[in-house]
């Protein structure tokens, strides 16, 4: 495709994203490209780069176009993104040539609006902090609570392009072997600093087309997510529950740490997500996993109360820690979403806790930056449940790097750790006289619950 055709495709994709405001942009993009299979891999990446650059700079672009009367169309905002990214006005006009596969020429209104942006920067100190750092105004206090004076630096790091992290599947080979395999296909991967199984690539790369991926030697998984699995310290003699398993990313990693022994139950309320895990499990050579669909009135949890050595709760959350990958999520998030999520997380914690055996552990994790979803959620849970404690730090998993091993809970950020934003806390169930397993067994899953991620 020509540069003009790629820009035209990006504008069409941005229109599709705007027409589905509550749907994640990556889901819209996947559907968009499925319907246009004639678009090759390189062109898909180029089109996606244009659109994701627009989404990452959305508030700043709107601020730079604030004096324009009328609606700011996808055409106008894509062109503004190019100009504020260093493109010249002459080149932008050429991209809007009206020739085959190109967008129609700029209108006089668009031309006048864009001409004023030539030579300017996307970011400026004149912009309000929330605009310059691309977060909702109403979320300022929540982010300040987490970061304090570090807020500008932490949120600046959130504006960057994320790396592409892989987890090497030790059931199939070693990290060194995976590095060699990927480099043979012109993908230079470096070992991650924190995860013992991680590899890192720069930017968007066609990993799924490599033999290493097809053979199950590598899986796409952020380093922070790998560290959550490391914190679980699941072993071959354990019964493990992945309570919010989704399509099974962490389930696969748990199976690896267990060396394909023991037993894992992957639960979710969405059948399609669980079905999506089947192909991944087969590719990875995993055979110690049972899938279970959670439904209203299900007696499954009651029958298995207090029976798991490890329960991983990868809770549904705001996703604020993944804004580098999902910049559109900043635009969709509302205060009501946070309120609903905090209630849901507490309910899920209580139900998952009933499945942990005495002496067993529950690992609570989110990809959120907000204290109300992280440490405060754990504090509230421990007030409700005197049969759980934070795991003593000397018992934390040796799979974790030294800097994380001396904490029962930890957080990760792009600025400090080079990962997505994550929170994880390891809790241990202790024996008490005030709460019995019979009481726990009365807990069932209500119809309104959704423990998926």
UniProtKB/TrEMBL annotation:
Domain SAM-dependent MTase RsmB/NOP-type residue range list: 154-430
Family: Belongs to the class I-like SAM-binding methyltransferase superfamily. RsmB/NOP family.
Name of this chain's protein: rRNA cytosine-C5-methylase
Example GO BP: RNA methylation
GO molecular function terms noted in the UniProt entry: RNA binding; RNA methyltransferase activity
Organism phylogeny: Bacteria, Pseudomonadati, Pseudomonadota, Alphaproteobacteria, Acetobacterales
Record-annotated active site: 367 (nucleophile)
InterPro entries: MeTrfase_RsmB-F_NOP2_cat (IPR049560), MeTrfase_RsmB-F_NOP2_dom (IPR001678), RCMT (IPR023267), RsmB-like_ferredoxin (IPR054728), RsmB/NOL1/NOP2-like_CS (IPR018314), SAM-dependent_MTases_sf (IPR029063)
PANTHER family, per the entry: NOP2 YEAST -RELATED NOL1/NOP2/FMU SUN DOMAIN-CONTAINING, RIBOSOMAL RNA SMALL SUBUNIT METHYLTRANSFERASE B-RELATED
Pfam families linked to this entry: Methyltr_RsmB-F, RsmF-B_ferredox
Coiled coil: none
Binding site residues for S-adenosyl-L-methionine: 268, 314
Keywords, in A-Z order: Methyltransferase, RNA-binding, S-adenosyl-L-methionine, Transferase
């Amino acid at each position: 495709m020509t540069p003009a055709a790629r820009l035209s495709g990006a504008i069409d994709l941005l229109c599709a994203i705007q027409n589905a405001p509550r749907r994640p942009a990556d889901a819209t993009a996947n559907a968009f490209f499925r319907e246009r299979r004639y678009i090759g891999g390189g062109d898909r990446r180029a089109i996606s780069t244009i659109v994701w650059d627009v989404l990452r700079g959305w508030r700043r672009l709107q601020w730079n176009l604030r004096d324009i009367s009328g609606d700011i169309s996808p055409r106008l905002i894509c062109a503004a993104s190019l100009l504020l990214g260093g493109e010249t006005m002459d080149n932008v006009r050429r991209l809007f040539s009206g020739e085959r596969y190109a967008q129609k020429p700029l209108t006089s209104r668009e031309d006048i609006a864009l001409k004023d942006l030539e030579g300017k920067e996307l970011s400026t100190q004149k912009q309000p902090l929330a605009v310059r750092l691309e977060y909702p105004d109403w979320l300022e206090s929540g982010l300040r609570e987490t970061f304090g004076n570090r807020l500008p630096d932490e949120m600046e790091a959130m504006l960057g392009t994320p790396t592409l992290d892989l987890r090497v599947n030790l059931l199939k080979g070693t990290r060194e072997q995976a590095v060699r395999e990927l480099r043979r296909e012109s993908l230079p991967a470096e070992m991650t600093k924190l995860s013992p199984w991680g590899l890192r690539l720069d930017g968007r790369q066609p990993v799924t087309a490599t033999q290493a991926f097809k053979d199950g030697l590598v899986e796409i998984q952020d380093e922070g997510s790998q560290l959550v699995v490391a914190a679980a310290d699941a072993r071959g003699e354990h019964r493990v529950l992945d309570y919010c398993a989704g399509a099974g990313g962490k389930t696969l990693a748990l199976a690896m740490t267990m060396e394909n022994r023991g037993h894992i139950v992957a639960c979710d309320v969405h059948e399609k997500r669980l079905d999506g895990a089947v192909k991944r499990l087969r590719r990875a050579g995993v055979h110690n996993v049972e899938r279970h669909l959670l439904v209203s009135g299900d007696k499954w949890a009651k029958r298995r109360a207090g029976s798991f050595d490890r329960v991983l709760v990868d809770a549904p959350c705001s996703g604020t820690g993944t804004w580098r990958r999902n910049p559109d999520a900043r635009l969709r998030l509302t205060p009501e979403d946070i309120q609903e999520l905090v209630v849901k997380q507490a309910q899920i914690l209580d139900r998952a806790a009933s499945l942990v055996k005495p002496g067993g552990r529950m690992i609570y994790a989110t990809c959120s930056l907000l204290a109300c979803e992280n440490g405060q959620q754990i504090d509230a849970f421990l007030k409700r449940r005197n049969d759980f404690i934070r795991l003593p730090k000397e018992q934390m998993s040796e799979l974790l790097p030294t800097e994380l091993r001396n904490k029962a809970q930890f957080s990760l950020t792009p600025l400090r750790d080079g990962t997505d934003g994550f929170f994880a806390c390891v809790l241990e169930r202790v024996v008490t006289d005030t709460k019995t397993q019979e009481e726990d067994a009365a807990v069932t899953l209500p119809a309104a619950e959704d423990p998926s991620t």
